[in-house]
Specification:
single chain, alpha/beta, 4-stranded mixed sheet
Length: 370
């Protein structure tokens, strides 16, 4: 019989995904408990959380590869939530699957960089990869409900970010302060910048192709500013099914933690009127590919496959952080990525060595351009 109480190892416990996960555990102590915690560098916060959740097993980034491996071994989780930001999250994903533990994955770079390698690993070790991104969580649920063979198209929704209504000229002059004013989501600094460039949606396109084993031409992006419909699928009969909920990352995390079951929880149910009892309007627009070129570049990377998604991700990471550090202008982010992507990235990935070689080379190119 499957235990109804799950022990959870939270990687990146001080970030936005980790914080949301711990809030769920606080509210659902009968269902979940913390068996391990990791944070990047914030030892004070890590120590506080360790005391609060009575969790002796913790580590920081300086403990490295061996530290994570040991943490998984000694904490014996039922599921690992990987909320580590950026490419640093890939090795923890691999180590989780090698340990035959189910992975609730918020780190999209794991799929973008390693693709079939991590799916093969999950299959070999008979464990699950459950997406935690709100969009991929919605698609995962919709595919399970509609049946994979009945799906004709995946439709990813995008908020459009803070510059959705800005004119092209104005976008080029956008500052970091402007980029961090996301209209619907409260996220970490890098992902908020990625949302402003629509580079984040680009990463999600690559992730969707790989997660759901679907051709790039069967993936569409639609701008939905209210962030209520988290994604949709079109079935072969032309009917579209969507998933609605308030824009709160706790929803997809709870779904991942409870999978394969759907259980009642402490979250406020979705209502068709807002908190002031006003009717809600849901709208949809086409993405402006010319003003947000990273989205177009991501579709190219997804289509060409091999090391192109690695190059896209690495160049975007370098360029986005250069913008955050105010070394380059907003419009330069896409220019850096485009330049790096113009090189040949057609090498086939055989192992993690190939992944990190391509990643390192793309970063070198991007740093020179920055």
């Amino acid at each position: 019989m499957v235990s109804m109480h799950k022990k959870i190892l939270v990687l990146g416990c001080t970030g936005s995904i980790g914080t949301s996960t711990l809030d769920i555990i606080r509210n659902q102590k009968d269902s979940f408990s913390v068996c391990g915690l990791s944070a990047n560098t914030n030892k004070i916060k890590l120590s506080e959380l360790s005391r609060e959740f009575n969790c002796p097993y913790t580590l920081t980034a300086e403990d490295g590869y061996d530290g994570i491996k040991k943490l998984i071994e000694i904490s014996k989780p039922d599921i690992v939530v990987n909320g580590i930001a950026g490419s640093a999250g890939l090795i923890p994903s691999i180590l989780t699957l090698e340990s035959k533990v189910d992975l609730a994955l918020a780190n999209k770079e794991s799929v973008v960089m390693a693709g079939s390698l991590i799916f093969d690993l999950a299959k070999k070790n008979n464990c699950k990869i459950i997406p935690v991104d709100s969009e991929h969580s919605a698609i995962f649920t919709l595919i399970n409900q509609c049946g994979k063979d009945n799906i004709d198209q995946i439709i990813l929704t995008a908020s459009g970010g803070p510059f959705r209504t800005w004119k092209s000229k104005k976008i080029k002059k956008a500052t970091l302060k402007d980029a961090l004013k996301h209209p619907t989501w409260d996220m970490g600094i890098k992902i908020t910048v990625d949302s402003a460039t629509m580079g984040n949606k680009g990463l999600e396109v690559i992730e969707a192709k790989r997660l759901f084993n679907i051709e790039t031409n069967k993936i569409e992006v639609v701008v939905h500013p209210q962030s209520i419909i988290h994604s949709l699928v079109r079935t072969v009969d032309g009917i579209v099914y969507g998933q609605f909920s308030e824009p709160d990352m706790k929803h997809p995390i709870i779904q991942a933690l409870n999978y394969p079951f759907i259980k009642s929880d402490f979250m406020k149910p979705f209502s068709f009127v807002d908190s002031e009892n006003k009717e809600r309007t849901l709208t949809f627009e086409q993405p402006r590919y010319d003003d947000f070129p990273l989205l177009k570049l991501a579709f190219e990377a997804a289509d060409k496959d091999n090391c192109y998604p690695i190059a896209f991700n690495a160049a975007n990471e370098i360029a986005a952080w250069a913008f955050i550090d105010e070394k380059i202008k907003f419009f330069k982010i896409a220019e850096v990525v485009s330049n790096v992507m113009s090189k040949d990235w057609s090498n086939i990935i055989r192992d993690t060595k190939d992944i990190f070689e391509a990643d390192s080379l793309a970063r070198e190119y991007a740093k020179k351009l920055v």
